[in-house]
Amino acid sequence: MAAERDRSVAPPTISEVAAEAGVGRASAARTLGGYGYVSPELRERVLSAAEKLGYRANALARSMSTGVSHTLGLIVADIGNPFFAGVTRGISDFSRQRGFDTIVLSTHEDLEEEKAAVGVLIDKRVDGMIIASAAVERDDVAHIQDAMTRGIPVVLVDRAVEHLALDSVVIDNREASRRAVNHLIEHGHRRIGFIWGPPMKKPATTRRALTAAAARSLWTDGERLRGYLDALDDAGLPFDADLVMTGPKTEQNATVAVSRMLALDDRVTALFCTENDALTGSLRAVRESGFSYPADVSLIGFDDSSWAAVMEPPLTMIAQPMLDLGARAAETLLSEIEGASPSRTMHTLEARFVERASVAKRSR
Amino acid sequence: MAAERDRSVAPPTISEVAAEAGVGRASAARTLGGYGYVSPELRERVLSAAEKLGYRANALARSMSTGVSHTLGLIVADIGNPFFAGVTRGISDFSRQRGFDTIVLSTHEDLEEEKAAVGVLIDKRVDGMIIASAAVERDDVAHIQDAMTRGIPVVLVDRAVEHLALDSVVIDNREASRRAVNHLIEHGHRRIGFIWGPPMKKPATTRRALTAAAARSLWTDGERLRGYLDALDDAGLPFDADLVMTGPKTEQNATVAVSRMLALDDRVTALFCTENDALTGSLRAVRESGFSYPADVSLIGFDDSSWAAVMEPPLTMIAQPMLDLGARAAETLLSEIEGASPSRTMHTLEARFVERASVAKRSR
DNA sequence: CTGTTAGCGCTTTCAA
DNA sequence: TTGAAAGCGCTAACAG
Asked: Which residues of chain B does A125 touch, with a Cβ-Cβ cutoff of 8 Å?
């Protein structure tokens, strides 16, 4: 029997509406649920009875019998991060329009929290989930496979996961990165700092160690690093481990790392920052070291924002289509929910390279 | 009978677990649901049967019988906005810890969408909702009252609504604004632009028209404008309608409005921007007009971010405690859900005034 | 076209 | 301590 309920008056049920209208429950259900045939007469009576009682369908009960919740789950590292907030907005707008709502869970980039989040969504019987997963290794993906096994459609957003044959919606991070770094090279830069790379216990000393670490990092981190390396290789430029930040990804660490790169005998003359905090941290280091951009050091950042455009000089940035990433992920998920079989492909959206004024010819 | 379901294997139910364990359903339910007494023996059998079948409780069914969904609803204008994203993060972190998940709905600052959103949340039987409402007039709040009438706890966040006796969690916008403007006045400024005020069809020409418009605007907008006026009055400074932007709240309009203020014979020497886009729009206008800050014009903005700190010179800002606003709203809501009667008060959190270097003594 | 009825998977009396 | 059975509000066969 129902318990803890009635924090107030129990909400009217379809039976009460039927009684009020003097019709059978099924007829009331049919008109209110919008299915089956009902004569205009009864229909009218039911509608006004519902109106009168302030009837609202209990979506929970409906889901119980239909097996469909019209609710999506979204799992991201941090909903407070503007990038994920943008993606969320894209998902939310798209899915709401199709009658789906979204439960949003933040995992703080912690795999255990992510596992728990998937469990919660399974329990709540979401119709599908979109995940920007923190999973990397093969052993990290069991929770996602569990959801799949249970027949819950899953699509990945922002980060692909190697060991998972799933649809994912991403940008070509490697190419975006390669292009940015190449842009720097074309401006004569040969000492280009990369902020930030995969977090490592101790700084990498060899390219080999670094790429190995990248393989154990978030897909996005790895791709961006590979793009950096690609550009170097394309230009025949030597790799220097001192120019790649590998510490924990915080703004402050970026400042420290960049300060060091700026103090090198053969100092860095350009910086490629793969995240917003990396950029602001770098900017701070540049200033504190007594340099200015783009005269002394050129800069390119990731994830454009109106701030980047009003910096003086304005910043050259890689702009990810956040809303579109979300919308596309939602679209893909919804079509799988509606029965389409997953194409298990990577949907790659275009990132824009927004050239402004933070890159100058090397003058040194 | 259940329909559309089984997109795959139907998930195991408590009955199946009971059968597998060779016990009655109730015993299985008791151990799995964590209530009532079960002998250690049976308990063990049930647990391993559940494990074996991969049982996960169906939260929907549970909600059906308990009347509690352990789900909160959050309604904001735009989840993609960094401010709301931060608030959401605060809510999400706090409530998740207490076993509640959050359905997030964006209304695009549209009252109709907000009404629909409330309806959706009622239907999904959320245990409570947090709303940053677009409602202003008495006629705008029926949907929220409807939720209240149905016994669903509601707390307001960021924006209080005059006609609603509800708990709300906000900052003292008026005081924060007054303080910022006063800071400008103390630095000798007498011509201070306010970006942006309440949107009006045609520019206000009198103070009276402006305050009237403010009364018909979002609470935050009104409060911030009142704070501006307070500071002027405190200092005995005259009000000038030309210094208050009243157009649609877009970055571009801010640029246009500020450009105009800068072109006045008795031009503006300081700007107070009440939102991020207002600030970036203003910055652009300052630059395009051939001025620089803080030498020619001083600036103060709302909603601090790491960007503001790395601008050159760094920007003086009012920092709202976004996470705390969210956490506090969640805390208040949860206690009401747990039975506390709403205190119907405004919970005012402290905003910090972060003084950096975008305000200088008036030099003109 | 309309009403009766049997579930959906869980919780919770109530007896045993 | 345990099990049987009713009920949460809805959908969907199935008769009529």
From this structure: 58-60
Question: Do β-strands B316-319 and B352-354 pair in parallel, antiparallel, or remain unpaired?
Answer: antiparallel
Say how many CA atoms lie within 13 Å of A320 toward its Cβ: 31
Same domain as B302, residue B203: yes
Strands (E), B28-125: 71-76, 101-106
Q: Are residues B197 and B301 in the same domain?
A: yes
CB contact under 8 A, A71 and B103: yes
pLDDT of A8 strictly over 70: no
Q: Which residues of A touch B306 (CB under 8 A)?
A: 251, 276-277, 280
Q: What pLDDT was estimated at residue B1?
A: 35
Q: How many H-runs (helices) and E-runs (strands) does chain B carry?
A: 14, 11
Q: Which of residues 23-42 of B touch strand D (CB under 7 A)?
A: 23-27, 29-30, 36-39, 41-42
Q: Is any atom of strand D within 7 angstroms of residue A1's beta carbon? A: yes
Asked whether residue A364 is domain-assigned, the answer is no
Global pTM exceeds 0.90? yes
Which residues form the domain of B17?
1-57
- Assess whether B202 and B150 both reside in one domain: no
Is position A95 within any domain?
yes
Which among B79, B126, B335 is the top mutation candidate for probing chain A, defined by the most A β-carbons within 10 Å of its own β-carbon? B79
B357 lies in some domain: no
- Strand C positions closer than 7 A to protein CB: 1-13
pLDDT digits (tens, 9 = 90+) for A158-211: 999 989 999 999 999 999 999 999 999 999 999 999 999 899 988 889 999 999
Rounded Cα distance, B121 and A78, in Å:
23
Residues A28 and A87 in one domain: no
What count of Cα atoms within 13 Å lies in the side-chain half-sphere of residue A40? 0
Is residue B223 in some structural domain? yes
pLDDT at A40 over 90: no
